[in-house]
Amino acid sequence: MLAVQVPRERREFLAINRGAMSSSELPASGSSADEIWLTATWPFVREHLPKPPARVVELGCGEAGGHLAALLSTGFDAVGVDPEAPERPGYRRLAFEDYVPDAALDAVIASLSLHHVADLGTVLDHVYDVLAPGATVVVIEWISECLDEATARWCLHHQVRDSNDSGAWLAGLCREWTESRDSWDVFFQGWLDRHGLHNASTIRQALDARFITTHDSSGPFYFPDLLDADASAEQAAIDAGAIKAGCLRYAGLRAAR
Ligand SMILES: C[S@@+](CC[C@H](N)C(=O)[O-])C[C@H]1O[C@@H](n2cnc3c(N)ncnc32)[C@H](O)[C@@H]1O
Q: Residue 138: CB within 6 Å of ligand 1?
């Protein structure tokens, strides 16, 4: 495990922010990174969806199932589509671009999946095609181009979750950086190139070409991987200008053709 001692500045930062971050808001020790992420992002997703029982698909729900359990328990007619989806009712194990719903959808959610898709244009064209006119697209994405050295070091000054934990990834990235002996900029550009991920500005341009924006904001992203900081602590560091926001939150509407 990549455990980093909490430095003095960090202890002071925690003390200063204690009012905004009660102990009950700190990550529960038994929660996985996936669980913390899904719990934190659900209110945004829910706020931008039409009323239940709208027909909703989660594009790239992941092997943990994404927001599908929350969608179903809230009364949505929901399906999770992902080649890695759980082998359970409610999920389809295939690429979204190969999924054909039996009626037009009221909403598509894509949380951290668009940066992974092979052909962004093809996938977003398919999102457009399967949505009813006036339907909603909700996107949560990693602003990878904003993970600069200051932001990476801020993460490293925390206790980073073990990379074997479900959904954890930051420890692996930090370990690769240490082993590379490169500057952050050289290392991270190479890492992005090797992984072939779409950055947030590319995703945003592709969304703008197809949908009408109804919401665009940014916020904390790395906290699920940190054992000693939560979303409010990360937001406070963003507000203080110490780090850059890593999460894009977007909602849009499908216009009529
Ligand atoms: C980081 S996981 C996101 C999981 C979950 N949505 C979340 O917010 O935690 C990205 C997922 O996108 C899926 N994915 C990649 N390309 C896809 C495609 N063309 N169609 C559907 N899912 C895709 C991957 O299989 C992976 O499970």
A: no
